[in-house]
Amino acid sequence: MKRFAIAAAILSLGLIATGCTAAAPAAPPSSAPASSAPATSAPASPSPSMSEPMMSDIVDTAVAAGDFKTLATALTAAGLVETLKGPGPFTVFAPTDEAFAKLPAGTLDGLLKDKKALTSVLTYHVVSGEVMASQVAGMNGEKVKTVQGGTFTVKVKDGKVSLTDGAGNTVNVIKTDITASNGVIHVIDGVLLPKS
């Protein structure tokens, strides 16, 4: 009897696999509870772990890039990490480690010891909203208001974008549109300084 049941099960699987319409013998009872969902129901939405990886926020994206260690240190010292991990969106004009190294000797150390001044300089690099490179390219001659409250001026020449800060210094945008979950980063080769 066991052999007959096994043969019948194999035969029914073969018929299902080949698309035959012959009726298969009833399946033996199962201890698993039956599902009430029809066989044609749509699959459930994939969980975040099954879909594309979630995008990192601005701070984590900058840290992962590896060229912004000084910026990360400065954000921590100013207590701005949680702000830039917030919902935003923000546009950050992020100076590289090399950009910070161009500051006159002692300037960075002085800023790191003066939280108010450091916060002012860092928030001067942040603009509310998400401003992509294509938008910046159309802003030649415009003054852009920063989160700090001051403005810098955008200049576009031969497809290259530069920013002139409140102190009269000009820096270049060297990489654009690094997207994050709460905004976008544009990389600059100098540190912007607000008008004193």
TrEMBL record:
PANTHER family: FI19380P1 (PTHR10900:SF77), PERIOSTIN-RELATED (PTHR10900). Residues 55-192 form the FAS1 domain. It comes from the Bacteria. Residues 32-49 have a biased composition (Low complexity). Residues 1-22 form the signal peptide. PROSITE patterns: FAS1, PROKAR_LIPOPROTEIN. Residues 27-53 are annotated as: Disordered. Coiled coil: none annotated. This is Putative surface protein with fasciclin (FAS1) repeats. InterPro entries: Adhesion/Biosynth-related (IPR050904), FAS1_dom_sf (IPR036378), FAS1_domain (IPR000782).
